[in-house]
Automatic annotation (TrEMBL):
InterPro entries associated with the record: Homeodomain-like_sf, HTH-type_TetR-like_transc_reg, HTH_TetR
PROSITE patterns per UniProt: HTH_TETR_2 (PS50977)
Keywords assigned: DNA-binding
The UniProt record lists the keyword DNA-binding: yes
DNA-binding region: 29-48
Species name: Streptacidiphilus alkalitolerans
Pfam families the record matches: TetR_N (PF00440)
Protein name: TetR/AcrR family transcriptional regulator
Domain of life the protein comes from: Bacteria
Domain HTH tetR-type: 6-66
Length: 197
């Protein structure tokens, strides 16, 4: 019985991913979930009390697996600069994943405060992966720099998702170049200022 319930729950989450990727939060309705999974609408409520609960569950399932993929990419890089590059490239590669497209469609404004906080905490896992590399590069405020790097990555992800005029490879390479130049030039300028001072 428990295994059957888990299979049904997994099917509902997969249907939710597809609906979010196809039509955003508006497409994620319990009747649509019922149709996609072949369940009665009342049965969907046995698994999730609201759309926010579905979204929270998606975050709980998908964010850790993304973080693990990014962490694995960062772990095999040898130098701090290569770790930053791996961090950026891994996230941009995940932008094409249907799981990512689904969660990118979520408007945090439609969720309660607890759900928004859990999503923010999950995103924080990503930023933490690059802080040590930035510290090793010599950044005085690696947490701040990591947040700024993440902002650049998120802007690139949005551009990839919108189907920008540029080829995806061009967007990826431009983003990597921008981040690497930014994180290394900032350290060089800080070191030069320290010597001059």
């Amino acid at each position: 019985m428990a295994e059957h319930r888990q299979l049904q729950r997994d099917a509902l989450l997969e249907a939710a991913r597809a609906l979010l990727a196809e039509g955003g939060m508006e497409a994620l309705t319990f009747p649509a979930l019922a149709v996609r999974t072949g369940l009665a609408r009342s049965s969907v409520y046995e698994y999730f009390r609201s759309r926010a609960a579905v979204v929270e569950e998606l975050c709980a399932v998908d964010f850790p697996s993304w973080a693990a993929e990014i962490a694995d990419a960062v772990a095999v890089a040898e130098s701090p600069q290569q770790r930053v590059e791996a961090y950026v490239r891994a996230q941009l590669a995940l932008a094409g994943d249907p799981r990512h497209r689904a969660l990118a469609a979520i408007s945090a404004g439609e969720l309660d405060d607890a759900a928004r906080e859990r999503i923010r905490a999950s995103h924080g896992q990503f930023v933490g992966l690059v802080v040590s590399a930035l510290a090793d590069l010599g950044h005085q405020q690696p947490g701040l720099t990591a947040g700024l790097v993440q902002g650049v990555v998120q802007a690139a992800v949005k551009r990839l998702e919108l189907g920008a005029a540029e080829d995806s490879a061009v967007i990826i390479e431009a983003t990597v170049a921008l981040v690497l130049r930014g994180v290394t030039d900032t350290v060089t300028e800080t070191a030069t200022d320290a010597v001059a001072g």
